[in-house]
Design brief:
The protein is α/β, with parallel strands linked by helices and 243 residues long. It is built from 9 helices and 10 strands. A 4-stranded parallel beta sheet has the order 1-2-3-9, with helices on both faces. Strands 5-4-6-7 form a 4-stranded parallel beta sheet, with helices on both faces. Helix 1 packs parallel to helix 2. The longest helix has 17 residues. The model has no long low-confidence stretch (mean pLDDT 96).
């Protein structure tokens, strides 16, 4: 979430006259300015994981189809949300814990969760951000559990926030009574899925995504002209899929 440090890093790379920068934007609008500086300096820039804002790209004079390597975050979140909707059934009461409001992937994941809420007939009690952070999620979920003691499910926009949510659920004595889904498939959440404390998460194959972004950049350096969205996969992870 540290946009200032990321901004400075890109500007530093421009000063060093590097050949290629791959960037997962901490802020989808804020990172357009340093990316424009890099492009103007003749550096190949590949945007991955978190998409740069289309309107901001256009306003900066960059193409609206600026190269992006990454998943369909709404599709991935809907996989997790649908798993929760299937478990709870129509009328299930849920809350959403959102990612950083400035990041496109946070927006898209919330959109995916909302699709599951609407199509699954769930009741959305509340939606709050915890800025991707474990401890903030713990605090936010602790307060929401007090406010909504009848909540049955929690959709977290990343797995770091799942860890905080599970901790809050355990502290409230609600283990087994509130189902949680997440996004990222980190090892700690894999363990919680095996223990039955988390219903599902979504694997977006992060290491492969970063690798793909670099490889795409090298292809451009070798002379290829690539634009638009190079979509990377998402996959639902449950106790069943891990067997």
């Amino acid at each position: 979430t540290d946009i200032d440090t990321q901004f400075a890093a890109v500007e530093n790379f421009v000063t060093q006259d590097v050949d290629l920068i791959v960037v997962a934007a901490a802020d989808s609008v804020g990172m357009v300015a340093p990316v424009k500086k890099a492009v103007d300096a003749g550096i190949v820039v590949v945007n991955f994981d978190v998409k740069l804002d289309t309107a901001a790209l256009k306003a900066a004079g960059l193409p609206e189809d600026f190269l992006f390597v990454g998943p369909d975050n709404a599709e991935g979140a809907k996989l997790a949300g649908d798993a929760l909707a299937k478990k709870l059934g129509k009328g299930g009461k849920v809350i959403i814990i959102e990612g950083n409001p400035g990041a496109d992937n946070a927006t898209q994941r919330k959109n995916g969760f909302m699709q599951s809420v609407e199509e699954g007939g769930l009741v959305l009690l509340d939606s709050k951000t915890a800025h991707w952070e474990t401890e903030e999620a713990n605090t936010v979920v602790t307060n929401l559990l007090t406010k909504y003691p009848d909540v049955q499910g929690i959709m977290c926009a990343n797995d770091s926030m799942v860890l905080g949510a599970v901790k809050a659920i355990e502290a409230a004595g609600l283990t087994g009574k509130v189902d949680v889904v997440g996004f990222d498939n980190i090892p700690a959440v894999q363990d919680l899925i095996k223990q039955g404390k988390v219903l599902a998460t979504v694997d977006q194959f992060g290491p492969d995504m970063a690798k793909n972004a670099i490889e795409v950049g090298l292809r451009i350096l070798a002379g290829e002209n690539l634009t638009g969205w190079i979509k990377t996969p998402v996959q639902l992870v449950t106790a069943e899929t891990m067997k």
